[in-house]
């Protein structure tokens, strides 16, 4: 038998049940193509179809190939927040018409550099879907696009996946419900003693972990900490943020309260991903604060969502919670997702010279409740 010969050649054997589309499948395929720096076709309900290529991973060769495939000019799709950073406020998404002579590095600058002046036009649903696809792929939220011919020609272009704007823009709504518990094991921790790790996975392939500490008493509000993953702070002790300190403090505080849950969420950099977080850090080193760094790159001030965390709590059988947080937006997001917050427990970490500006921006611009944080016995300015 040949290596690829099917031993079950009976005509009644069909792969159709295995290949049937789910509502999330077209967008999952498109995300895979974006991650591989390959183009996809995006179609809207008005028969507008664009061939879209993520800006991240762009090379001179890819830019030239895109130009040669186009009957018209190349457009750069950017998010509404990036458009606002470029002076065009109030747009859901923006479009920049590129000059034919534009170089690869010029495109990247338009996508995320500061102090640029350029004309931005309003973008439609295809532009919004392209930006959402880039965000779902944890890429820089910018994409190149050329107008394709027709929906019919798009469906005949089998080498390039085609996805609709509705499918992309509805994807996040179904992401929380795709969450499944995949494994669990006992993992003793230095500051908590007995604990277990409950690992969940979603339709994007992201892993989300619930650290169950001690004996959880479900007759009272359960101490819960939502902690967004921070490689630099959690694993390496970075002094640019307070994440590592908050993680260790939360574990100890939950243990002191005789048990609870820490949700370790795959939301690095307030949901923008590690690569983009380093881009934001580079902007901060040029004098941009932590919030404006995110919006300069085209992200919202905070890209985190809390429906996945709420589903994790439901799957764990947790109802009312005593939430360890300083962030009012986190409380509002959880409540909107259906979680009852019976109590807020403050979690104020130490201030140092490297994270002082970061914490001040969180306090003064994002409303974090950290007015008692101190640096060398000086209260952080309220």
* Strand arrangement, major sheet: 5-4-3-6-2-1-7
Sheet having the most strands: 7 strands, mixed
Question: Which of globular, elongated, flat, extended, rod-shaped describes the shape?
Answer: globular
CATH class of the largest domain: Alpha Beta
CATH topology call of the largest domain: Rossmann fold
Number of helices: 17
What is the CATH H-level superfamily of the largest domain? GTP cyclohydrolase II
N→C terminal distance: 75 Å
Helical residue percent?
25-40%
Looking at the overall shape, the CATH architecture of the largest domain is: 3-Layer(aba) Sandwich
State which percent range the strand residues make up.
15-25%
| Number of spatially distinct domains | 2
- Uncertain segments are 373-382
Quaternary structure: single chain
Number of strands: 16
Mean pLDDT: 88
Question: Can I get a quick summary?
Answer:
This protein has 382 residues and is of the alpha+beta class. The chain contains 17 helices and 16 strands.
């Amino acid at each position: 038998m040949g290596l690829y010969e099917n031993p079950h050649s009976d005509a009644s054997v069909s792969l159709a049940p295995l290949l049937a589309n789910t509502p999330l499948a077209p967008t999952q395929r498109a995300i895979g193509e974006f991650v591989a720096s390959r183009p996809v076709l995006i179609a809207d309900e008005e028969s507008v179809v664009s061939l879209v290529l993520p800006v991240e991973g762009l090379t001179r060769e890819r830019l030239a190939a895109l130009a040669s495939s186009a009957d018209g000019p190349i457009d750069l799709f950017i998010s509404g927040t990036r458009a606002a950073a470029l002076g065009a406020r109030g747009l859901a998404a923006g479009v920049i018409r590129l000059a034919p002579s534009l170089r690869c590095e010029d495109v990247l600058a338009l996508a995320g550099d500061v102090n640029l002046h350029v004309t931005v036009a309003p973008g439609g649903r295809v532009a919004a879907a392209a930006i959402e696809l880039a965000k779902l792929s944890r890429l820089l939220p910018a994409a190149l696009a050329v107008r394709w011919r027709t929906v019919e020609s798009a469906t005949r272009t089998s080498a390039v996946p085609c996805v609709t704007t509705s499918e992309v823009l509805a994807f996040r709504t179904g992401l929380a419900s795709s969450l499944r518990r995949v494994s669990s094991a006992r993992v003793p921790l230095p500051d908590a003693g007995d604990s277990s790790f409950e690992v969940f996975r979603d339709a994007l392939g992201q892993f989300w972990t619930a650290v169950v500490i001690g004996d959880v008493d479900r007759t009272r509000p359960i101490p819960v900490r939502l902690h967004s993953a921070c490689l630099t702070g959690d694993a390496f002790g970075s002094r640019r943020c307070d994440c590592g300190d908050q993680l260790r403090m939360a574990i100890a505080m939950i243990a002191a309260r005789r048990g609870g849950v820490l949700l370790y969420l795959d939301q690095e950099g307030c949901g923008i991903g590690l690569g983009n977080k380093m881009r934001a850090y580079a902007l901060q080193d040029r004098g941009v604060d932590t919030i404006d760094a995110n919006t300069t790159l085209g992200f919202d001030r905070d890209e985190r969502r809390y429906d996945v965390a709420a589903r994790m709590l439901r799957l764990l059988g947790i109802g009312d919670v005593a939430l360890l947080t300083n962030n009012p937006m986190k409380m509002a997001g959880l409540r909107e997702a259906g979680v009852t917050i019976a109590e807020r427990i403050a979690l104020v970490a130490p201030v140092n010279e490297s994270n002082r500006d970061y914490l001040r921006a969180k306090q003064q611009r994002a409303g974090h409740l950290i007015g008692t944080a101190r640096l060398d016995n000086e209260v952080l300015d309220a």
